[in-house]
Every structure is written in C-alpha cells, then in structure tokens.
C-alpha cells in the first residue's frame, strides 16, 4: 500500500482555467486589502468633529398662548340608575369641583398680587437691566424648574443681578421682584 498522498489537479481545469482562477482570487484579495488600507488611513487622519452651535437669537415657538386663563365647562355623563347609597347629593358634587367663576377669581387675585411687567411704573422699568429670556422649563417637583436668562440657568430664589430676583417659576409665567416690587413675566418674553 502506498501511504503517500497524491495531489491530483482538478480534472476539468486546464492551465488557462488555473490562470483565470488565480487572477479572480488575486483581484478579490487586492480589493479587500485596498479597502482596509483606505479605511485605516481615513480613520487615522480624519477624527470625528464635535462642534457646539448656539443660536444667537431666540427662535420663535411653533405655538403661542391664546389666553392665560382657561375655563373648562364640564358636565357629568348621563348616569345609569344607581342605588340610593351611591348617589351624590348636589352639595357633595359642588365640593368636588369648584365653579368656573371661582377659578377666574383666583386668577384675577393672582394678577393683582403679581402685576405684569408692563403694569410697573415707567421709572422702575427704565432702571431694570435688559434680559433675554431664552428657555423656560417648568416642573411640578420642587426645585426642578429652571429658566435661562441671558445664557445662564436660574432656579427659584436666584438673584439675577442689578436688583432683580427670581421668586417663582410657573407653567406659563415667571415671577420676579425688582427692588422688592414683585412682577410677572410671560415665559420667553424679553425685556
């Protein structure tokens, strides 16, 4: 028995076939190595660029507030017949939802306590520094609301400068004080 391994050429390939097979294999290897070299060169010589872009002016919002006071006029759904123990009396129902007129009075009282910036005396408004109101973020959690004025972030209670102090941030307004006089400014309104 012969233990040697004999290599036999493929039966159907001629010398020209071997030449074409070698050429195709070499072409594929050359393409792959060229792509790898090109990728390596670009990754070394072209690091990623990180640019910070700041908008020099305030962008207009795609919405606007129509009114600061919203009044909802709700009516209960038609009730199915209930047993007497589950029905609410009219007095209990009034305790659950205050009438719309009470909500309007509360808003008017808030406006009286904190007048708008436009309602302050002209002398006080002239002495106030110019403020650019860039951002307004309201959160119902205490201490999480923040506004951006002149490029700086401020939380409730912060001193803005030149006698202006941020007292409170509300959903649509911010309450400031200037030399002890409180006033209200609509969110994103410069002065």
TrEMBL record:
Biased composition (Acidic residues): 81-94
Highest taxon listed in the record's lineage: Bacteria
A Pfam cross-reference name: T2SSB
Any one of the GO CC terms: type II protein secretion system complex
Keyword check for Transmembrane: yes
Chain segments annotated as transmembrane: 20-42
Disordered as annotated region, ranges: 77-100
InterPro entries tied to this protein: GspB_C
Type II secretion system protein GspB C-terminal domain segment(s): 129-187
Keyword field: Membrane, Transmembrane, Transmembrane helix
Name this protein carries in UniProt: Type II secretion system protein GspB C-terminal domain-containing protein
Lineage: Bacteria, Pseudomonadati, Pseudomonadota, Gammaproteobacteria, Enterobacterales
């Amino acid at each position: 028995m012969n233990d040697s391994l004999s290599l036999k050429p493929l039966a159907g390939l001629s010398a020209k076939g071997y030449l074409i097979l070698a050429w195709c294999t070499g072409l594929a290897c050359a393409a792959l190595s060229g792509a790898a070299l090109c990728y390596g060169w670009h990754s070394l010589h072209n690091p990623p660029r990180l640019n910070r872009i700041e908008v020099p002016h305030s962008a207009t919002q795609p919405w606007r507030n129509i009114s600061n006071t919203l009044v909802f006029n709700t009516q209960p759904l038609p009730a199915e017949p209930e047993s007497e123990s589950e029905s609410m009396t009219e007095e209990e129902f009034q305790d659950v939802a205050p009438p719309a007129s009470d909500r309007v009075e509360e808003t008017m009282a808030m406006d009286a306590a904190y007048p708008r910036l436009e309602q302050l005396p002209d002398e006080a408004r002239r002495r106030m520094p110019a403020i650019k109101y860039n951002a307004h973020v309201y959160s119902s959690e205490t201490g999480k609301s923040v506004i951006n004025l002149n490029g700086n972030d401020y939380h409730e209670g912060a001193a803005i400068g030149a006698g202006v102090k941020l007292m409170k941030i509300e959903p649509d307004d911010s309450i400031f004080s200037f030399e002890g006089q409180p006033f209200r400014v609509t969110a994103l309104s410069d002065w």
